[in-house]
Amino acid sequence: MFKLSFLLVFVVLASQVHSSVVKTPRDLVDQIEEELNQLSSIVQGAILVAHNDLSNLEYDFLNYGNNVMLEAGISIDQEKQSIDTQLTTITDMANSVNADISPCTDIRQELLERLPAEYTNQLKTCIFDKNKQEAGLVSDAKYVVDVVINKVHNLEFQVRQCKESILCLQPILTEIELDKIRLPQTINTEVLSVDTFLTSLKLSVVQCSDSSVSQYIADATTILQQIIDCVNRIIG
Questions:
Q1: Residue 104 has what pLDDT?
Q2: DSSP conformation class of 16
Q3: In 3D, which of 10, 70, 43, 21 has the Cα closest to residue 182?
Q4: How many CB atoms lie under 10 A from the CB of residue 190?
Q5: Are the C-beta atoms of 200 and 57 separated by less than 8 Å?
Q6: 3-state DSSP assignment of residue 21
Q7: Of the N and C termini of the chain, which has fewer Cβ atoms inside 10 Å?
Q8: What is the distance, to the nearest Å, from the Cα of residue 221 to the centroid of all Cα atoms in its chain?
Q9: CA geometry: angle at 188 spanning 185 and 194, to 5°?
């Protein structure tokens, strides 16, 4: 998914270069420097791919949250229209018998008018909180990915410390060859971890929507029923 297969193929091809016998410490140093250059290119390429993948995951999550918020707003608006229609019917019925139902509607109708905005704002706050979690997670992941290059720098430092000692350099060469596989995998694992977490966080975004819409419907229905009961007592 995140182009790791391309990097692994590159590693396999590059590792085949080293079948020749190293005869002197200088030869080994030259070989290690070449290997380090290849490792650096592999890691930098993996980092660029990871940043792109993380940015795509971030865009997808924000877009998902925005769509959920829009759909919830439509649900609230549709419920409001239904309630407004019922209120109109109640008012027309009262007018037809010259009944004053203002004691039933004045305060309650004002409450009904405020509810959609209140629950829409509640929904926005909830989803924005999830967006903050996502932003922090992606930012941390990009940092974790970026510092993987430090392993390459550390190997470069170790090579300088060896001062052309074959016994010192040989394990580093082995480490470099292993890191050509391990470091891209480490980077890819971090991206996959973010993907998994954001998939779970999307469920929380849906819960934000479900909670706000259901609470609005429950409160609006309760107030409407209070109006209906009050009107019935007046009209008889």
A1: 92
A2: G
A3: 43
A4: 20
A5: no
A6: coil
A7: C
A8: 35
A9: 140
Note the helical H segments in 97-165.
Answer: 102-146, 149-162
**Which residue in this structure is represented by tokens 């995998």?**
185
Give CA 85 to chain center in angstroms: 40
Q: What is d(CA 60, CA 55) in angstroms, rounded to the nearest whole number?
A: 9
pLDDT 10s digits, 73-85: 999 999 999 999 9
Closest C-alpha among 229, 228, 184 to residue 83: 228
Radius of gyration of the chain (CA): 32
Least confident of 25-29, 134-138, 200-204: 25-29
Query: What distance in Å separates the CA atoms of residue 33 and residue 78, rounded to the nearest whole number?
Result: 67
Q: Which of 195, 185, 193, 196 is nearest to 4 (CA)?
A: 185
HSE toward the beta carbon, residue 89, CA cutoff 13 A: 8
Q: Beta-strand (E) ranges in the chain?
A: none
CA–CA separation, 188 and 206 (whole Å): 28
Record the tokens describing residue 179, joined without a space.
């890191």
In the chain, the amino acid numbered 190 is: E
